[in-house]
Amino acid sequence: MASSATLAAPHAHAAAHAEPTGLWSWITTVDHKRIGIMYGVTAFFFFLVGGIEALLIRVQLAVPNNDFVSAELYNQLFTMHALTMIFAALMPLTAAFFNYIIPLQIGARDVAFPRLNALSYWVYFFGVIFFNASILMKLGPNSGWFAYAPITTKQFSPGINMDFYVLGLQILGLSSIIASLNFIVTIINMRAPGMRLMRMPIFTWLTLITSILIVTAMAVFTIAITELMFDRVFGTQFYSVAAGGDPLLWQHLFWMFGHPEVYILILPIMGMVSEVLPTFSRKPLFGYNVMVFSGVLIGWLGWGVWSHHMFAVGMGPIADSFFALSTMLIGIPTGIKVFNWLGTMWGGAIRYTTAMLFSIAFIAMFTIGGISGVMHAAAPSDLQQTDTYFIVAHLHYVFFGGTVLGLWSGIYYWYPKITGRMLSERAGKAHFWLTLIGMNLTFFPMHFLGMLGMPRRIFTYADNMGFNEMNLVISAGSFIIALGTLVFAINLVFSWKWGKVAGPNPWGAPTLEWSIPSPPPVYNFRTIPVVHSRMPLWEGDPTKDGGIPHGRAEEDTEQVRLMGADMGEMTYPDDENKMSAHDLGIHLPPPSYWPIVLASGISLTFMGLIFRSMDGPLHWLWLLTVVGVAVTTLSIFKFAFEPGHEH
Amino acid sequence: MDHSHALEAHAAHPGHLDTSTGLDSRKLAFWGFIGSECLLFGSLIATYMAYKGRSLKPPFPHDRVWNGQHVEGVFNMPLITFTTFILLMSSVMMVLALSATQRGDRTWSRNWLIATAIGGAIFAVGQVYEYSHFIHEGLTISSNLFGSSFYLLTGFHGAHVTAGVIYLLTLAWRVHTGKLGPEKSLLVEIGGLYWHFVDVIWIVIFPLVYLIP
Q: What is the pLDDT, as a whole number, of residue B191?
């Protein structure tokens, strides 16, 4: 669908140079908006996959001594649930927002390297399919997402399950690093004139911090799994205890990535919520500077706390104390953020839209998760809680109550910008209440189960432990979440075609992306805006706004939405609205198929290695790696010297 | 929309058409890439250092006493010192290549790029020779902790050198065919960033692996 196809303009007529549609145009696209949509759709699909895995787990645990799934399959399910949610659903969903929203927020026509952007999507696409193929063959990784070596070395995990882990995550990690480099450069270098760093929207700020965390933390993880890959595929000894290897080496490398990863998953969400709350409170973000610096501080401290995941291994009192203190320290910038969000709402003219409800729920639920986090920051307390359901409760309040609720808030907020249509608010409220009630029924009893001593990652439990009732409630709660998600999915699909027409700025929001039509034309901004303040659409005189069409938001946004067509016509006559980049003389990079070819080469290089540890004729399929290297090398040259993309 | 107003806006901010910082985006991206590479190499170096001297059986890197016997180390110091010297000198030639490119001296731009690549190639060939010598001595990737961590670290670096040689030769070819002149000297500069980075990392690896017993 072309970016202008869903715009319902009463006097629309066919444009001379319509933007191309069709499958091939999506495969070769380098437009950040289309790539954002592809990221979003793929990631939402895998969110559903990860959700189904979670439901299977909850069916198994609904009653004691259940045999709905075998212990072996259960191991694969909880491992794949975590990995799918983190690497295939939540990170790419945030990437979808980075792609779609960041260039619009900073007043740019695209990201700094459009083809590299397409490359990172296609690498993710191939990686995630390869990775999820494993569970379909019941050969999924089965060690937990942390894959502690030496348990995951060939000696103790002889199947190819863990090969899928090391090779699949190698591909997905590469995709994240490429994408993040692109966003760092885009945010630093592509800002509209006048948009100084401290005038950037807060979501853009936290995306920058997140991207820096990804390029650094992912690199450590890449080496950790490269060493594991060499151990498993080429017979090195990195994690072999028999050869004198240190069993803690993996844990350190893994958590040095794993803990920043937690912030990679929450910082962008904090950014989204920090956009939603001011818009629906009709107040600027309280303490913008402090919000920025506390974000930087969280990212910085996030690098110094990894060993709090390892209190149980016995590092000694000095290391334990250090990591306990640094972990508690992170509570300070996080607390600052929570109070600033409250300060933003305080005295504001709050409108309880679905997006706003999800953001408010985010603050409450994330705070619960944060408080239980501070509880096991204390090493002695953590020793009681390690590997119990208390940790499961904590991490789900942070990931589901934090990341997921915040993402849903972001989707309700920006969906009108992306599709040109509003999500149904009535379905949205149903989605919200089902999700909020469902998640608390699901995750709150886990605190008590953990304190009673129910261990994580065990496929069943005995009848007489006092776990029965709570587990049944939890399983029921998980299906309420599923019902809510179903409502959401239906809402997403139906509103795309039949939702109310949104107009450029349905919420009366202050940032640049709301100054252009919804969905935005392929070139985003007909003229690059000049920015004079943090909230260009809320401040300044519309006649002196330096090319920003909607200099000031209307007092009553309901009215703006009702009059959407009229407003649109005033600022954007249809003939101009329908003008293509070519008509306006705006140069955009041409489509390219080299990103998908290069991505297939990179993915094939790693996928081929899966066959090295197989016997029989399949073994020789590892030569696909050689093909992959050849395709990669060739495509790098083709990529570098492609006409129309050379600088 | 008032187009004349927008044009004014552009005139008032001439820098915009380039980038917000004035730094070329490719160069900035490359610095980011180097930052990421630091963590990649850093983790490999950390692994090597964590396992230094912890191998349970020979071959060992340096001479030492093991089970009451004197065991000779596998390192061939004169060879690696020589190729290290060549690698470091190639960085000087890289600087000369960039300078010639910026001056518009295509002949020397090409020659210095090729010379830099040859320096890198000598280092890479030296490494292949060193590896075959070590394998002959019984040190493979799966012999012991030293073998695993040594080959992965230096091999990762060697792969960077090899990629760099191909990169430099591609640049030299572009200069030779007249497609890369002083107006695009940034491409040589970025190639130089990569090459200097590969050298700097070796300056860290060489003493940690070879010099400190």
A: 97
CATH number of the domain residue A206 falls in: 1.20.210.10
Mean pLDDT by runs of 10 across the 213 residues of chain B is: 39 53 92 96 96 92 91 92 97 97 95 98 97 94 94 97 97 95 94 97 96 89
Measure in Å the smallest separation between the Cα of B98 and chain A Cα atoms. Answer: 18
Query: Mean pLDDT for chain B?
Result: 90
Q: CA–CA separation, B124 vs A376, rounded Å?
A: 50
> Is A411 inside any structural domain?
yes
Residue A551 lies in a domain: no
- Separation CA A560–CA B20 (nearest Å): 33
* Ranges of H-type helices in A196-246: 202-229
Residues A249, B50: C-beta atoms closer than 8 Å: yes
Whole-complex ipTM: 0.90
- Shortest CA distance to A4 belongs to which of A536, A528, A520, A500? A520
Mean pLDDT by 10 residues, chain A (647 residues): 36 51 92 96 97 97 96 96 96 97 95 95 96 93 93 92 95 96 96 93 97 96 96 93 92 95 96 96 94 96 93 92 94 96 95 97 97 92 93 97 97 96 96 98 96 94 94 97 98 95 92 93 91 83 43 36 36 51 80 95 94 86 94 94 75
Taking contacts as CB-CB distances below 8 angstroms, the residues of chain B near A183 are none
Is A17 inside a domain boundary? Answer: no
Q: Which helix (H) or strand (E) holds B70?
A: strand B69-71
pTM, 2 dp: 0.91
Does residue A554 belong to any structural domain of this protein? Answer: no
Cα separation, A571 vs A469, in Å, equals 60
Q: Determine, for residues A181 and B32 on separate chains, whether the beta-carbon distance falls below 8 Å.
A: yes
Q: Domain count of chain A?
A: 1
Domains of chain B, earliest start first: 24-211 (1.20.120.80)
**Vertex A378: Cα angle to A372 and A382 (nearest 5):** 70
Nearest CB neighbour to A193, from listed B13, B55, B151: B13
Mutate to test the interface with B, among A117, A213, A236 (most CBs of B within 10 A): A236
Residues of A recognised as catalytic: 81, 110, 145, 175-176, 259, 261, 263, 274, 308-309, 334, 337, 456
* Nearest CB to A236; choose among B2, B40, B141: B141
Q: Is the peptide bond before A333 cis (omega within 30 degrees of 0)?
A: no
Q: Any chain B CB within 8 A of the CB of A643? A: no
